Amino acid sequence: xxxxxxxxxxxxxxxxxxxxxxxxxxxxxxxxxxxxxxxxxxxxxxxxxxxxxxxxxxxxxxxxxxxxxxxxxxxxxxxxxxxxxxxxxxxxxxxxxxxxxxxxxxxxxxxxxxxxxxxxxxxxxxxxxxxxxxxxxxxxxxxxxxxxxxxxxxxxxxxxxxxxxxxxxxxxxxxxxxxxxxxxxxxxxxxxxxxxxxxxxxxxxxxxxxxxxxxxxxxxxxxxxxxxxxxxxxxxxxxxxxxxxxxxxxxxxxxxxxxxxxxxxxxxxxxxxxxxxxxxxxxxxxxxxxxxxxxxxxxxxxxxxxxxxxxxxxxxxxxxxxxxxxxxxxxxxxxxxxxxxxxxxxxxxxxxxxxxxxxxxxxxxxxxxxxxxxxx
Length: 376
Ligand code: MG
Fold this sequence. Notes:
The structure is a single chain. By secondary structure, this protein is an alpha/beta fold. It has helices at residues 12-23, 40-49, 59-68, 77-82, 101-109, 119-136, 145-157, 182-185, 190-193, 203-211, 213-226, 263-272, 286-289, 304-314, 318-334, 342-353, 362-373; strands at 2-7, 28-35, 53-56, 73-76, 90-93, 113-116, 139-142, 165-172, 233-237, 243-249, 254-258. The protein folds into two domains: 2-142, 3-Layer(aba) Sandwich (Rossmann fold), CATH 3.40.50; 148-369, Rna Polymerase Sigma Factor, Chain: A, CATH 1.10.1740.10. Helix content is 47%, strand content 16%. The structure holds magnesium ion.
């Protein structure tokens, strides 16, 4: 039986992860849960799974929790959440944003498995996370559907031969505004942008999908996870979201992974790898689907993707600045303070002004993140 810490248990990935655990009660034990705030949902998760420890970022929430569950090891603040990284056999990291960096580092330093859904942590500090994972013999398993697809295609080929990989092809649904022009995008409201055509997700990632920054972050994430340079990572628009990504090999062969879009598949594989377990999820019937479509991305009307490629090729703290500036701009957009098209403009300004630090330390990354959040 594997012990499991779910950091970000009340978010959409966390809830799906608990669904996977419900399917395999006899093989997983939830030992720790963490969330941003105290909530009824968190309390009911604690009642259902009886973890040994729980953490919430807000201090008052932690007090409430301790009152309700006196026997529970309650931790608080960013440090409290981070302290649960590496606490169990598997850490499933699904907190939003760069707040995931410290728990990710603690998890890989423990030498245990990190199943990572927090793309901002990999984007900002991916090189450090992967280096620490290698040093400590920790496994880093992707939870993002695209990266899980790539992982599965590489595993199918035998992962020992990176020189055989010609390119990674990351698919994108194109978001709710595919085909629209910049002038139309200027008037998009937060509620329109939150309606994703395929995936039901948290607010931050839904906006990122609408701007295509999500795909940009995923390009950087893939580069970090698989040590593949940006020039060898392509983006392909695929509105049906059934082909989750592909790998092209040097002989021209392409391998793809397909399934109905359901996060629980990638989550379960990250928990059970190298095994595949049963799953009651609905099966893909290609005859019923009939037709799959593919298009090139639109860099003119969706400039965020190019900004991500730029940050990846600049290296240093540029990806951290890209991610932090984007998080800030998305918050401002959701509050109605800036327009949809101002999100990439804010990110670009921050990239222009970013310090050049070739081999950043963790402190450099944290400083760059802070810099990226100041008003432009
Ligand atoms: Mg994804």
